[in-house]
Every structure is written in C-alpha cells, then in structure tokens.
Amino acid sequence: MTNAMLEPTMTTTDTSDKATMRAVIQHEYGRAEVLQLGIEPVPTPAPGEVLVRVVAAGLDRGVWHMVAGKPYLMRIMGFGLRRPKTRIPGMDLAGTVEAVGRGVTRFKAGDAVLGTAIGAGAFAEFAKLGESQLVHKPANLSFEQAAALPVSALAALKAVRDVAKVQAGQHVLVIGAGGGVGSYAVQIAKAQGARVTGVASTGKLKHVLELGADDVIDYTRQDFAQAGPRFDVILDIAGNRTLKHLRRALKPRGTLVIVGGENGGSWFGGIDRQLRAMLLSAFTRQKLTSFVSTVSQSALTDVARLAQDGAITPVVDRTFSLAQAPQAFEYLENAKARGKIVITTTLTAA
Ligand SMILES: NC(=O)c1ccc[n+]([C@@H]2O[C@H](COP(=O)([O-])OP(=O)(O)OC[C@H]3O[C@@H](n4cnc5c(N)ncnc54)[C@H](OP(=O)(O)O)[C@@H]3O)[C@@H](O)[C@H]2O)c1
Q1: Which CATH superfamily is domain 9-149+314-344 in?
Q2: 339 CB under 6 A from ligand 1?
Q3: 335 CA to centre of ligand 1 in angstroms
Q4: % of residues, the chain, pLDDT over 90
Q5: Average pLDDT of the chain?
Q6: 261 alpha carbon to ligand 1 midpoint, in Å?
Q7: Average pLDDT of 306-321?
Q8: What does the pLDDT read at residue 119?
Q9: What confidence score (pLDDT) does residue 77 get?
Q10: Most buried in the list 80, 157, 244, 330, measured by CB within 10 Å?
Q11: Ligand 1 close to Cβ of residue 66 (< 6 A)
Q12: Can you tell me which atom of ligand 1 is nearest the CA of 340?
C-alpha cells in the first residue's frame, strides 16, 4: 500500500481568479504512484454540457487501464501516445447539477444525477459531461451506490440481455462473479429468470450467493468444466481461460460471451483471444462472441431503472477519499473488492 498522503499541488499555470477545485491528476502513464492531488480550474460547461458537483466517482478496471496506458493498443487508439490526453482520471460519477450549458433541457441546477464522464475525468470536485452521458439518480440509491452503477452495470446488461440474450430457465455460468461487472451480471441474469452459477475465489463465494446466484464454484478448488458441457450461456469476465477450456463447459448450441479478463498481454490485453473466438464461431454450432460496451442515455436509463425497481443493487465494497486515490488503485489491482470501489469528494483523507 502507498502510505504517502497526497497534498494538493498547483498543476495549472492559470493565475486568473477562476474558481478552482481539488482533482486527482496524472501527468504520465503508470501505476498508483503517478496520481497526485492537484488544484485545477473548475470546468465551464459548453453548449449541451452539464457541470456536476461530484459527490462520488466509481473506480473500475477500465479506469485502471487508462491510468496505466495498457494495453498499449489503447494509446494508438487515441488515449495519448506518450502521456494521457485526459489528465483527470475517472469516468463514472454521481452528484448534483451545478450549472448547465446553453441548450440543455433535461437537467437543472440541484438535480441529483449519475453518469459517465467520457474523456473528461470524474475524480474531482466538479466534472462536465454531455447531456446524453447523464440520467437522474434513482432516489433509492445513495450517491456512492449511484457512482458504482454506470460502466459495470452497462457491461453486464449488454452481456446478459443484448449479446447472450439470456432466457428464463437457461443455466448461466458467470466467471468473475464477485467483481464489478460480475456482481451485476449475476443479478441481471437472475432477473431474466435464469439459473446462475457463479465462479469466484473462496472469500467471495458468500457475496456471490447473497447476490442471488443459485450455486457457486470456488475456482481455487474446482474446475467448472469438470462436469462437461452443462451451461447454456457462459459469461467470461475474468481469468483469461483458453477457448478450449471454456467450450468444454458449454452446451453444443450454447453461447460464450467474452467480456474481459486481465493479464492478457501488454500490447493487446487479450483482444486476440476475443478475435479468435469470433473467427472460430463461424465453424461451430456454439456461438462464441465478445463486445465493447458503449455509453448511451437509453442504456444508462435502463440500468438506472433496474436499480430503481430493485432488480439490481450496486454493491460498494470500500470508499476512499480523493487524497486516497493511490490506495484505491492498489486495492483494485489486488482484485479483492466485492463489487465496486468508490472515491468520494466528501470524505477527508484518513
Ligand atoms: N467488454 C467490455 O465492454 C467491458 C466493459 C467493462 C469491463 N470489461 C472488462 O471486464 C473485466 C472485469 O472487470 P471488473 O470491473 O468486473 O473487474 P474486477 O472488479 O476486478 O472483477 C474481476 C473479478 O474476477 C475475479 N477473478 C480473478 N481471477 C479469476 C479467475 N481466474 N477465475 C474467476 N474469477 C477470477 C476477481 O476476484 P477473485 O479472484 O477474488 O474471485 C474479481 O472479483 C476487466 O478485464 C474489464 O476490463 C469489459
């Protein structure tokens, strides 16, 4: 763990009397140690944009990849070759609307909202987002829960509902069931009426059962493929297992959806496995596929509605202050979180 307490440093050369805010800043790619607490100008919302006073911001694997600049393919794809184009990390956030730009009609100052600040940064006291990247926060969620919702729940919803098209009565295997995406995938598959088996390490089995899984497999002790092809759908969220291994557990007409998996290599991050799956799919009765989730207002509305109706409940494992961002990243790296990690602007450093 990083013990150093972050002290705010001036990171801008702007000497005007513009309002300033505390923000987590990174000037270079790297691990937790590249994160600093800095003072930045409060952004001004352009036409069509909303300025949000951030209460809580979600941390997930995607943010970790953007901070690390890995896989390197991401840098080539526009995140910045040598250093990140966006200096403030973070995407998911929840808070209250502070101001709106010209032409914004769906939000007004004081509204409680959640959303995804793509390319703008959420680990700060204020963030600006396009109107379509936000929805109103369900009243039954705390700001911390709301910040734990967008990216992970969107990925889970896309995997379960849109790609696998899970039907009532199907038997679904969720690999990585105790993490950010997996915790939602278990709940959404159950809401679709499926029978769900969750794969996790020993310490997360109870958590996965509490999410509603019918049964669990401890991957440190048991191989889910041991009993042969018994699953209609496999959601492969973690572990980077070979296609051969995964297919051994999948019924002859079953569907494998590769959502992600860490340690897939510094250059491609496992995307080669996803491409091989899609190629192979043309030659087998099994459907082998993958996807990249995108943020849209309609998808955000869908996950907010699922949370409002109680079909999914965001699980926040731990909350860190802005100053504790390096510790939050280290906690994520160790994959110990049950559900999500959240950074809040209201906590002072502990
Ligand atoms: N396709 C997309 O659009 C999309 C969108 C979002 C995320 N993703 C990707 O999805 C992956 C998961 O993201 P996340 O936010 O859920 O990460 P996370 O919160 O770290 O969860 C991953 C989970 O997998 C478990 N795990 C690790 N090794 C495992 C293994 N060998 N077998 C089974 N479970 C294992 C981990 O805990 P235990 O080992 O303790 O059980 C952890 O709970 C990442 O690679 C991310 O980049 C993709």
Answers
A1: Medium-chain alcohol dehydrogenases, catalytic domain (3.90.180.10)
A2: no
A3: 8
A4: 79
A5: 91
A6: 6
A7: 97
A8: 77
A9: 79
A10: 157
A11: no
A12: 19
Ligand 1 touching residue 201 (CB < 6 A): yes
Mean pLDDT over 5-22 rounds to 59
**In the chain, where the domains are located:** 9-149+314-344, 151-290
Span 81-90, pLDDT tens digits: 888 888 999 9
Higher local confidence (pLDDT), 15 or 296:
296
Report the pLDDT value the prediction gives residue 8, as an integer from 0 to 100.
47
The CATH number fitting domain 151-290, selected from 3.40.250.10, 3.40.50.720, 3.90.1200.10, 3.10.180.10: 3.40.50.720
Task: Give the pLDDT confidence score for residue 242 in this predicted structure.
Answer: 95
Residues 238-291 have pLDDT tens digits of 999 999 999 999 999 999 999 987 776 777 667 889 999 999 999 999 999 999
In the reported structure, the alpha carbon of residue 305 is separated from the centroid of ligand 1 by a whole-number distance in angstroms of 24
Q: CB neighbours of 192 closer than 8 A, spacing ≥ 6?
A: 160, 161, 166, 167, 168
pLDDT reported for residue 124 = 97
